[in-house]
Amino acid sequence: MRSRDWRWWRPLLGLLLITVVYLVAATGVVLVALVTGVFPDLKLLDLVDPGTLLVTNLSLIVAIPIIWLAWVAAHGMRPGWSSSVRARLRWRLFLPYTLLALPTLGVGILLAVLLGFLVDGGKVTGPTSSFLWLVLVVVCTTPLQSAAEEYVFRGYLSQAIAGWFRSPGTGAVVAGVLTAALFSALHVPPDVWTFLDRFAFGLAASAVVWLTGGLEAAIVLHAVNNVLVFLLAGGLGEGVTTDSVPTGTGLLIVAIDLLAMAAYVALVARSRGRLHPETVTPAQDLRPASPRGVPNPSVHVGYGVSRRREAQHDPWGMG
């Protein structure tokens, strides 16, 4: 955002636009579900119910085009800048990152679920009666719901906050902490352990965005976590919680989750030499010509990183 015709008020305008349009769009999704009677027993807290989860996911998915709209309307930039430093999603990265997330997050989630059963003395009560419908909803919509949250918190809000700081490093740290805190708070954690767990998740998402220059690794982190949690909750029953840390297991659950997320972040960092994710951007080359001329910048600006310019030409033909 800061690398083009930056103005301090542009992120504020974008955030206002996102808030107003999203409230209208999300309300519309819920009203359509209620008025049509498709889900007459809609309970917004029962996310293991396929109908409730579908409506909830759709009400979040609508945020993706709204984020794109904000980039165009408030910043005059292509919506792809919300995805990565290449102004698009780099699809080649999704499979490798998924293969890194499944063993790390998967083991962490399974250990946390097992610990919850052992401490609470619970037993398997699933699968739920509508488990097959739940699987269909989770597989088809939960990855998009996860992507939507990443577009909001890391694709726009993080960049908006970081844009108010001249130092990319300072902006990245402040944006990571603030968006992680807001991410956790908006999930309405019932206790401090759940807040810390969500907060750490937000920090991990910001870390992989900074390491890779785009949202792909964060989307995978979010999607794999949510898909596994909802499938386990539907398959095993009420012993698996989707919105809180099980009572009496707070410290251990948070420790397990931290280790799992740290392992994923470490593997993503290590994979950079093999996957070569781009971490610099030609965004400042998009500045329009001025009467005085646009001086050749000496740095490229990335997601929290600055590097000395390696080429004077615009490889995208958009200078």
Number of helices: 9
Order of helices and strands: HHHHHHHHHEE
Number of strands: 2
Strand order of the largest sheet: 1-2
Mean pLDDT: 85
Largest sheet: 2 strands, antiparallel
Beginning-to-end CA distance, first to last residue? 16 Å
Question: Looking at the structure, what is the overall shape?
Answer: globular
Backbone structural class: mainly alpha
Strand content: under 5%
Radius of gyration over all CA atoms, rounded: 21 Å
* Poorly predicted runs: 294-319
Assign a percent range to the helix content. Answer: 55-70%
Helices and strands in order:
Elements: H1 10-35, H2 50-61, H3 63-75, H4 94-120, H5 131-163, H6 168-186, H7 192-212, H8 216-236, H9 250-275, E1 299-301, E2 306-308
Helix pairs in contact: 1-2, 1-3, 2-5, 3-5, 4-8, 4-9, 5-6, 5-8, 6-7, 7-8, 7-9
Sum up the structure in keywords:
319 residues, mainly alpha, two-stranded antiparallel ribbon, 9 helices, 62% helix, 2% strand, disordered C terminus
What is shown here, in short?
This protein is mainly alpha-helical and 319 residues long.
Verbal overview:
The protein is mostly helical. 62% of the residues lie in helices and 2% in strands. It contains 9 helices and 2 strands. A two-stranded antiparallel sheet has the order 1-2. A hairpin with a 4-residue loop joins strand 1 and strand 2. The relative contact order is 0.15.
